[in-house]
Amino acid sequence: MAYNNNKNKGTKINPDLVREREKCTFRIEELTNYIDGSQEATAERHAREQYFLDDPSLRPSDVPSEYLSHKEKYEEAIRMSVALFRRVKQLQNEKGGAVDNYRQVLGGSLGPALLADGNPLGLHYVMFLPTILGQGTLEQTAEWVQKAWNLNIIGTYAQTELGHGTFIRGLETTATYDEKTEEFVLNSPTLTSYKWWPGGLGHASNYAVVIAQLYTQGKCHGIHPFIVQLRDEETNMPLRGIKIGEIGCKLGMNVTNNGYLGFDNVRIPRNHMLMKNNKVLKDGTYIKAPSSKLTYGTMIFVRVVIVEDAAQYLKKAVIIATRYSAVRRQSQIKEGEPETQIIDFVTQQYKLFPLIATFFAYYHSAKWLWNLYNQITGEMEGGQLDRLPELHAIACCLKAVSTADCSAGVETCRLACGGHGYMISSNLPTTYGLVTAACTYEGENTVLLLQTARYLVKSYQAFLDGQKLTPTVSYIEKYKNVSTPPFQKRVEWIIQALEKVAACKIEKAYNNIQRRVKKGLAYEHAWNETSVELASAADMHCRANVLAIFQDKVQSSKPTLSKELGVVLQQLLELYSVFIAIRFSGDLLRYTNTIGHDISELQAWLEDLLACIRPNALGIIDGFDMRDEVVRSTLGSYDGNVYERLFIEAQKSPLNQEPVNQSFHKHLKPFLQSNM
Amino acid sequence: MAYNNNKNKGTKINPDLVREREKCTFRIEELTNYIDGSQEATAERHAREQYFLDDPSLRPSDVPSEYLSHKEKYEEAIRMSVALFRRVKQLQNEKGGAVDNYRQVLGGSLGPALLADGNPLGLHYVMFLPTILGQGTLEQTAEWVQKAWNLNIIGTYAQTELGHGTFIRGLETTATYDEKTEEFVLNSPTLTSYKWWPGGLGHASNYAVVIAQLYTQGKCHGIHPFIVQLRDEETNMPLRGIKIGEIGCKLGMNVTNNGYLGFDNVRIPRNHMLMKNNKVLKDGTYIKAPSSKLTYGTMIFVRVVIVEDAAQYLKKAVIIATRYSAVRRQSQIKEGEPETQIIDFVTQQYKLFPLIATFFAYYHSAKWLWNLYNQITGEMEGGQLDRLPELHAIACCLKAVSTADCSAGVETCRLACGGHGYMISSNLPTTYGLVTAACTYEGENTVLLLQTARYLVKSYQAFLDGQKLTPTVSYIEKYKNVSTPPFQKRVEWIIQALEKVAACKIEKAYNNIQRRVKKGLAYEHAWNETSVELASAADMHCRANVLAIFQDKVQSSKPTLSKELGVVLQQLLELYSVFIAIRFSGDLLRYTNTIGHDISELQAWLEDLLACIRPNALGIIDGFDMRDEVVRSTLGSYDGNVYERLFIEAQKSPLNQEPVNQSFHKHLKPFLQSNM
To answer: Contacts of residue B599 in chain A, CB cutoff 8 Å?
Structure first.
């Protein structure tokens, strides 16, 4: 029954896990294939994992990096990422390169398996190359993509400044065109104009795409991208006028070498401005591109990637917490019985199983969003731009809601492991550091929810004006004057209820804006005063969509699946839906025909589902098929030898390499003896 | 108007903060005195802060510790904590010692000001000394307290093992009495029996109180405390049979030197068992103490301290996030207007202001609990033990709910600071590391809620049996057959509503246990199956009490306060109550006479309160009167020079001390050039 992609197949398996695996009612490999998309996709992933994880040059070093100094961590990360890029290049030469390869190797689940706390060179592939590809002219692309693709140079992407993140129109870095020399002159006029945050900017990159306010012929034309050389290719010394360094330690991602960058009259040739869209001619004439929507694409792409990454982090956390909960025995439910596997405490199931289901919800949403993205960007290449706002709106809220939920979920998993979850060797703290970062980068979550809300309010106006709505908001039409049916114990009913709630929240927010405008407030101030409700409407809009996507996926897959796996997926779908319904029971009671007793029914349904999932819990997370090198956790390995691993990891601490630390002789002993 | 306890009074204040302070409607110093308890208490605190913070030997070193290696961090922490203990001893000699001094210096707000990420010697005062005082005989106390109090030795407290935390009856370490030599022989029979987690155990302590299963005359008598010497006082070498080291890196508190400890036939004299309660005679005869409740006291004491510490961490976080939100300007609410202070976005107010109010709620609850603790332990000394269960029940849930809420609150503050909150220099990540640890130590939160639930179910049974209930659960009597009045816009109404909800939840859980027992389940299994509801009932029981305590405190203080401050405190009280009511709107709708429209009223009330508090927000957090050395944040200093401080802090990174890192020559350059 057991299915195990792990290398250490020989090790003794914890007997509790053996028993758990015997209980599983479905074929684990089938679940793995379902998640990967097909048997072939699983095989492909295995091959990729093998290619990287079995390479001795990519083994983590003997002293775990958390024990090193900040500087040593960086140096070790550079060693590892160079080895990794060498391997990526080799793969590229052998099998041809595809963006998906880099995505899997730098992000997804493989990225943190190889470099646990980030990659100092990651933005080279994730931002530098794509920006040049997306915004360079043919000649620029030919020149720079070649250098970047061949890894002759390392680039990053410098947009955010100390004083500006969300509001990019407010960026202060200037690029002033000097027609006499046909150069742009870059300057950082204030402290707040210093670039701040770009990964790899501190010391690792020698080039960057820099976003700056363009001035030509005495006029400002707004922000534009420029390729700027930062450091000498031979010596790595910062070029003249470049003030550069790293920004310091962070909650996580401490090897990503996030940097700052100031300019003091730095000159770059005219053809270093990326001119696929807007152009500056030799004499300084500025020519504006017909549409600014063309640059939207990469921003949305990054958010699509974040949703899947968030789901991956949550997946890892539930693997760790579920395996640990099956191995850990603590207390006796009943005196005289053996100590209980903590997974048998219903409060523990209540913490973990809904999160297993939440992984599926966001994972399916991420795949769905990826397909939508490809479909709509395909349409865009044909000149059709009308579905872009809907894509943007759903990507914004999905990024916000998935990162918020998955971050909270990772923490729930950590806390569910008690004190041992607090150990770095559990890999839960580091995973939290990675996933929570996504709540504020690439669009702060509240800001993103309010962007979605803008689309919802527009849609509601369109609905009032009698226009047809786009698919993701079509529920507004459905529920405007229709109440939901009384409670039924079906996922469909919960979807209806969430859609009704979302529709009511949008209507209510819309009306409150109108009410405030009528009172004399400017629309923008009315918007701000209504923003708590607006954000909440966008949140519910997202949840209604996520649940509908999950439902569609399970129902459409069932015919191709074994009955056994179909049952399990249905249970997970139901669990997720009930979990969300209870979480938002206040909204259900307020906006739908739900009554108090229905909430008791939902609670009983949820408890039934916990009991149904219990025997398959280990099977499900085994089916996630993460190799131990990817899970990287003392608490979450396939063999369940939790205590042995905790002990072995502790022995790696440099403090444990000597029986007595020098601080005893230097500080403690003189003090203690002075008190005698 | 401005009131500033900070040293750097000379620095230029950010003009936005100057304006904010001018808006404040109350006298800030009055709020400070209110929080401290009196003008004299404020002066005393100032003197203590001055004593420690102005001492040059206690200045943090130039390179912030986050840049050091794990080993260097430990060594630096030993240097600092020895300097600190030296200063504490000096104070003790000058002014006499009081436990409160150590509590303030090691925990509270001063502890993390001096040692940001924990104190490797902290348990000496917090656990080692109190355990000997509480459980030693007169002779033992005379011998050991002298050595410990004089700091001739450093001790820790070793209870938790790799395999057992919550379930202390399951501890595996054995102490077997050998009547021939009149010694106990300590052993660690399994890997899981290794002590694991005690602070300072790794390398810093040379003594420990060890909890072990006592065997005499072939019989096990359960767990007992023993004083064990771990390391040689001259050389610090581990004694024979002692296997010891540190457990490795953690999410936070990385200098607390948490350790592991195994015993291989370690012999200690008979009088090293702490025998105030139970005794072992020379011949091995075991004599049991009359009551085991005597040892309850310290456990409850520690939880009382945790509630106040949790509130202190939240206080620090809201200071940081509120000051930053007043300085940070981002986006324009309306085009053409200057960029907005982000504190003017209602979504930001919605995140921060309820947390300011939450600090007051838990701070007052902590003070209330401290008084109750003193009152009841006073009664206990008179032999009256009957109020102990109530104290235990309320301490358990208050510890659980306050640490959960304050941890989540600190994270909300961090995320409200956007990317900059992710910087260690903001001090928000480190603060989170400290506060979240309290969710799992000294009683895992869910376990504690279920302990409270046990008391609630017993109380409900007592109520059914016609007995009079204790004060903290007396609401059960009040609401059994009485419904709450319709919504009123008053705090009193919300207290009634929460009490009604708590009473209903207790009743429902009680009935569900009975129902399951009738179905044939053993009581303990019925309990487990009902545990999600039980934990939720305990949570609501806690919240109803916290709100009532907050209300009492504000109403009883008002007559002694200026009208202006009274108004502000009333607003904070109302904000907290409305915030909780909305958070639990599902429960209100389900269990009370609340209807959907009332929730809209609550929402409108909350938004009004945000607007009321807005002009005083800075004044309130200034009134918290935390010196910059305590806040330790680039984002939260009194002068608001956020960007300057971020930049200055970044310059301290060792990576920034050289323009080119050696890894360029070693790894990057050879790779980039090989691709040419």
So the answer is: 586, 590
Place of tokens 């469909």: A492
CB–CB contact B249 A192 (8 Å): no
Query: pLDDT tens digits, residue range A550-593?
Result: 999 999 999 999 999 999 999 999 999 999 999 999 999 999 99
B446-616 adopts what CATH topology? Butyryl-CoA Dehydrogenase, subunit A; domain 3 (1.20.140)
Which pLDDT belongs to residue A19?
Answer: 97
- Report chain B's C-alpha Rg in angstroms: 27
- Letter for the amino acid at A115? L
Contact B529 A607 (CB under 8 A): yes
Residue in A72, A418, A584 closest to B444 by CB: A418
Distance of residue B32 Cα from the nearest chain A Cα, in angstroms: 31
What is the distance of C-alpha B392 from the center of its chain? 17
Spell out the residues 6+ positions from residue B82 whose beta carbon is closer than 8 angstroms to its own: A667, A668, A671, B121
Q: Which residues of B touch A591 (CB under 8 A)?
A: 596
Assigned architecture for domain B154-289 = Beta Barrel (2.40)
Q: What is the mean pLDDT of chain A?
A: 94
Cα separation, A425 vs A634, whole angstroms: 6
Domain ranges, ordered by start, for chain A: 154-289, 446-616
Q: What is the 3-state composition of chain B as percent helix, strand, coil, each rounded to the nearest 5?
A: 60, 10, 30
pLDDT confidence tier of residue B1, bands split at 50, 70 and 90? very low
pTM score > 0.90 for this model? yes
Mean pLDDT of all residues in A496-505:
97
At A665, list the tokens.
């002789």
CB contact under 8 A, A250 and B424: yes
Contact state of B75 with A676 under an 8 Å Cβ cutoff: no
3-state secondary structure of B466: coil
- As to burial, measured by CB atoms within 10 angstroms (0-12 exposed, 13-18 middle, 19+ buried), residue B461 is exposed
Which candidate from A82, A415, A528 shows the least CB-CB separation from B345? A528
Provide φ and ψ at B644, rounded to 5°: -60, -45
